[in-house]
Amino acid sequence: MRYECDQCGACCRQFLIECDDVDVLREQRLIEVDRHHAGKPVHEVVQGIRTEWKAVILPTPCPFLAENRCSIYPTRPNCCVGLDAGDEQCQSARAAEGLPPLLPVS
User: Fold this and answer.
1) Torsions phi, psi of 92, nearest 5?
2) How far apart are CA 75 and CA 29, in angstroms?
3) Are 80 and 17 in contact (CB under 8 A)?
4) How many C-beta atoms lie closer than 10 Å to residue 27's C-beta?
5) Residue 23: which of 85, 84, 80 has the closest Cα?
6) What does the pLDDT average to over 4-9?
7) pLDDT (tens digit, 9 = 90+) per residue, 47-105?
8) Alpha-carbon distance 65 to 81, whole Å?
9) Of 17, 66, 64, 58, whose CA–CA distance to 34 is shortest?
10) Which residue, of 24, 57, 69, 72, has the greatest Cβ tally within 10 A?
């Protein structure tokens, strides 16, 4: 079955996002929304992720969500890239938001 995202934004309001070193290197603004890393230089954050497992965590709802759209879509974290419309996480987020299940397209 194939699903199309209806841009409800539920995933961005429901999931805590853990960003790795590649995410931070690709989108440096991620650092500023994590209260533990804000203000640190990129190389320090990346080093902390690689050696001490100090991931960058985005608060919920995602601060990059604007009008139910990702404002950093081309550089969004890998875990966001991995979310698929209609998958278990999508349907769970929609249910938590009181939305009906996403239906497959024909």
Assistant:
1) -65, -45
2) 10
3) yes
4) 17
5) 80
6) 95
7) 999 999 999 999 999 999 999 999 999 999 999 999 999 999 999 999 999 999 999 99
8) 14
9) 58
10) 24
pTM summary value: 0.88
- Distance, in Å, from the CA atom of 100 to the CA atom of 78, rounded to the nearest integer, reads 26
Task: For residue 101, give every residue at least 6 positions away whose Cβ sits within 8 Å of its Cβ, in sequence order, or none.
Answer: 91, 94, 95
CA distances from 48 to 19, 21, 55, 76, 89 (A): 12, 9, 8, 20, 29
Tokens coding 58: 């985005």
**Which stretch of DSSP H or E encloses residue 18?**
strand 17-19
| Interatomic CA distance for residues 98 and 105, integer angstroms | 21
| CB-neighbour burial class of residue 49 (10 A; exposed 0-12, middle 13-18, buried 19+) | buried
Both tokens of 1, joined, read 């079955």
